[in-house]
Write a structure and sequence with these properties.
Layout: E1 11-13, H1 19-42, H2 50-67, E2 72-74, H3 76-92, H4 95-116
Antiparallel strand pairs: 1-2
Helix pairs in contact: 1-2
Length: about 120
């Protein structure tokens, strides 16, 4: 059955992203898309969720096109892929630990700074 609304009821937007962010995002999305593509090509029979991976690969294609000037239809797949990617990056970079360490150092610095003002 054909879908009644191919945009998935999402809003279409033109991204306005600074060049330094666009370059980073372009590399990140290419790496993610290429990893999925490689996994689908090399291990098609071992994939647990091939349909989901296909959707993710398509989202990365859409995101890359949007970074290159095309409008992006924001739908649940785009939101899910971006949330999953951000969560993975946070876990890989140990974001919570880094934030806790940073807060501890800032607190210590603030206390030491107060002592210097006496």
């Amino acid at each position: 059955m054909a879908t009644q609304n191919p945009t998935g009821d999402g809003d279409a937007v033109a991204l306005t992203i600074p060049a330094e962010h666009r370059d980073f995002l372009h590399r990140l999305f290419e790496m993610a898309r290429d990893g999925i593509h490689q996994e689908r090509e090399e291990f098609p029979d071992a994939l647990r969720e091939p349909v989901r991976l296909g959707r993710e690969e398509a989202v990365y294609d859409k995101l890359l096109a949007a970074l290159d000037g095309e409008q992006l239809v924001i739908d649940a797949d785009v939101r899910d892929v971006l949330a999953d990617l951000a969560g993975m990056i946070d876990r890989e970079n140990e974001y919570r630990r880094v934030i806790a360490e940073h807060e501890a150092l800032l607190d210590l610095r603030a206390q030491v700074g107060r002592q210097d003002e006496r």
